[in-house]
Design a protein that fits this description.
By secondary structure, this protein is an alpha/beta fold. The chain has helices at about 40, 55-65, 85-95, 105-115, 115-125, 150-165; strands at about 1-10, 15-20, 25-30, 45-50, 105, 140. The protein has a 4-stranded mixed beta sheet, covered by helices on one side. The chain has a two-stranded parallel ribbon with strand order 5-6. The longest helix is centred in the middle third of the chain and has 15 residues, at about 55-65. The relative contact order is 0.15.
Length: about 170
């Protein structure tokens, strides 16, 4: 049984749960979900949950700095090796490279990864780590958003936060 250390962060007046394994961060919940949502992303997982602030403190601090706009990149170790398939992993790796304050279209991601638009959209909704894998920076086409992990409120707040920090790639 794998040990997962959990904690919470506050984002947009909502509580988000996250878990860390021995290799790094492996899950962030949606704002309307509990810790058990992890099984949607790791259905074969057998976990022992522990709340140990001495292990999760650095994650909470970086998330807080990021949410406040004091940090433009989360440099936390993460481990999503058990999530998604190889195509999703490829898409997530590309999305992770989108710079703070920039956006990319679903079509560009699909073309770069050699997949169709629907595969990209499905991968965006299946990421276990919104914010770490910045799915909020992917749009369908100019002025057209679609549902992603975390919801519309989280996406809007993250895009606005990045725009307010002096980066004008986002309107």
């Amino acid at each position: 049984m794998e040990k997962l250390y959990w904690d919470t962060i506050n984002f947009n007046d909502k509580k988000l749960y996250f878990t860390v394994n021995n290799n790094g961060l492996n899950f962030i919940s949606d704002s309307d979900q509990r810790l058990s949502q992890i099984y949607d992303f790791y259905p074969k997982g057998r976990f022992e949950f522990r709340n140990q602030r001495n292990i999760t403190r650095i994650y909470v601090e970086q998330f807080d700095d990021f949410i406040l706009g004091e940090r433009k990149q989360l440099t936390l170790p993460f481990d999503i090796s058990g999530a998604g398939n190889s195509t999703f992993q490829k898409i997530w790796q590309l999305i992770k490279t989108i710079p703070y304050g920039s956006i990319m279209t679903v079509q560009d991601v699909a073309q770069h990864c050699g997949v169709d638009d629907q595969t990209v959209i499905h991968a965006l909704s299946a990421t276990p780590l919104p914010m770490i894998i910045p799915v909020h920076r992917v749009i369908y086409e100019p002025d057209m958003l679609f549902p992603v992990r975390g919801g519309a409120a989280m996406r809007s707040q993250l895009l606005e936060m990045e725009a307010m920090n002096g980066l004008d790639d986002i309107e």
